[in-house]
């Protein structure tokens, strides 16, 4: 099993190196214009320049902090509201009947479709962005929580009652642990969707943030800065997902072993 694991990692590493070599060759021999495909060296130079001098009056750290701040506030608010409401909705049908139509109405809509309304109501500052990110995270978290409760075998609930468990013990010892695998799947999905929404929001109305930096660079045809910004956003997204998976391994060690 260990050898297979290392083999998979080796394949991934080789594929990444192959793409990097092809990228280097394409740009080195001028098969594609640097305007459309800058070289790895040009992208690295853009990164070094932003590290040293910042971008449009703000440091790279400032752009990253502003993006992650908006994401964190919105996601925390979604966690403490969507998950409890989803758990309750999965258990009580009439509560689900109240909220589900509204969530199903806005869930499939592209976030930018109603972002203009949020800008009109809350302005172009962080308030509208946080509200947009909150709505983006709320739906997948709510659905994951609701469906996780509905998937719990009723025999498991009956056994808890037959052993004299109180409602609190039933929730803390049976319901919550049973829902954790699906909840973490929903959290990972919600983070990914919220992160893409963050970039879109910053591209529409912002003066800082990674999404704004990429859009601003594209206006001046600086593809080296655009690709550099994309790499930074991708690395941050992977780190966020890694953090969630690490927490999941600690809180749900039995996942995949049942």
Structural class, by secondary structure, is: mainly alpha
CATH architecture of the largest domain: Orthogonal Bundle
CATH H-level homologous superfamily name of the largest domain: MetI-like
Helix content: over 70%
Broad shape: globular
Largest sheet: none
Please tell me the total number of domains: 2
Query: What is the CA–CA distance across the termini?
Result: 18 Å
CATH topology of the largest domain: MetI-like fold
Top CATH class of the largest domain? Mainly Alpha
Give the percentage of residues in beta strands: under 5%
Q: Compute the gyration radius: what is it?
A: 23 Å
Order of helices and strands: HHHHHHHHHH
Number of helices: 10
Poorly predicted runs are none
Can you count the beta strands?
A: 0
Mean pLDDT across the residues is: 86
Write a brief structural summary.
This protein has ten helices and no strands.
Structure report:
This protein is an all-alpha fold and 258 residues long. It folds into 2 domains: 1-32; 38-251, MetI-like fold (Orthogonal Bundle), CATH 1.10.3720.10. It is built from 10 helices and no strands. It has helices spanning 2-28, 40-53, 60-91, 93-106, 111-122, 126-150, 154-162, 167-204, 210-219, 223-251. Helix 2 (40-53) packs across helix 10, helix 3 runs parallel beside helix 6 and helix 7 crosses helix 8 (167-204). It starts with a helix and ends in a 7-residue tail after the last helix. The model has no long low-confidence stretch (mean pLDDT 86).
């Amino acid at each position: 099993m260990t050898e297979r694991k290392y083999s998979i990692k080796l394949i991934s590493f080789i594929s990444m190196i192959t793409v990097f070599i092809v990228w280097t060759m394409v740009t080195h021999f001028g098969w594609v214009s640097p305007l459309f495909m800058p070289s790895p060296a040009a992208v690295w130079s853009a990164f070094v320049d932003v590290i040293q001098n910042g971008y449009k009056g703000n440091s790279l750290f400032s752009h990253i902090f502003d993006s992650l701040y908006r994401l964190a506030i919105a996601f925390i608010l979604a966690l403490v509201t969507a998950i409890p409401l989803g758990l309750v909705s999965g258990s009580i049908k009439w509560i689900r009947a109240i909220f589900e139509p509204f969530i199903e109405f806005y869930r499939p809509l592209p976030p930018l479709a109603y972002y203009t309304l949020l800008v009109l109501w809350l302005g172009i500052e962080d308030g509208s962005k946080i509200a947009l990110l909150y709505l983006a995270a709320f739906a997948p978290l709510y659905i994951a929580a609701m469906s996780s409760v509905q998937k719990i075998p009723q025999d498991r609930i009956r056994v808890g009652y037959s052993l004299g468990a109180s409602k609190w013990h039933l929730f803390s010892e049976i319901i919550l642990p049973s829902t954790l695998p699906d909840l973490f799947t929903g959290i990972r999905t919600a983070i990914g969707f919220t992160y893409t929404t963050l970039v879109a929001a910053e591209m529409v109305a912002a003066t800082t943030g990674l999404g704004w930096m990429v859009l601003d660079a594209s206006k001046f045809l600086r593809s080296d800065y655009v690709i550099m910004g994309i790499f930074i956003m991708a690395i941050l997204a992977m780190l966020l997902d890694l953090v969630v998976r690490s927490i999941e391994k600690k809180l749900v060690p039995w996942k995949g072993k049942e």
